[in-house]
C-alpha cells in the first residue's frame, strides 16, 4: 500500500488515524479508538463499517514506538 495514500486515510467512523498491519496472509488498517480492523484486498482498503472486524483490545495492542535519536 502506498504510504501517501495511508497518510490521507482516516477511520470513516471517528476520523482518527489508521495504522497498517501486515501479516503473511493479509493487510488491515487498524483504528485503535474504535477497535476495528478494515481489510485491504488487492491493495484496496475497504473502508466500510460492515466490512470491518472487531479487534480485541487485550490481544491487539498498538505497537510501541521508540523515539528516534
UniProtKB/TrEMBL annotation:
InterPro entries according to UniProt:
Trm112-like
Q: Which domain of life is it from?
A: Bacteria
- One protein family per Pfam: Trm112p
Q: Where is this region: Disordered?
A: 50-69
Annotated Basic and acidic residues bias: 50-63
Q: Which family does it belong to?
A: Belongs to the UPF0434 family.
What is the protein name stated in its UniProt record? UPF0434 protein LNV07_14625
**Species whose genome carries this gene:** Roseateles oligotrophus
Amino acid at each position: 500500500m502506498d504510504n501517501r495514500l495511508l497518510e490521507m486515510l482516516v477511520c470513516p467512523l471517528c476520523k482518527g488515524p489508521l495504522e497498517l498491519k501486515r501479516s503473511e496472509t493479509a493487510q488491515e488498517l487498524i483504528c485503535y479508538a474504535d477497535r476495528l480492523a478494515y481489510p485491504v484486498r488487492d491493495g484496496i482498503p475497504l473502508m466500510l463499517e460492515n466490512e470491518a472486524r472487531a479487534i480485541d483490545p487485550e490481544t491487539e495492542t498498538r505497537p510501541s514506538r521508540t523515539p528516534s535519536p
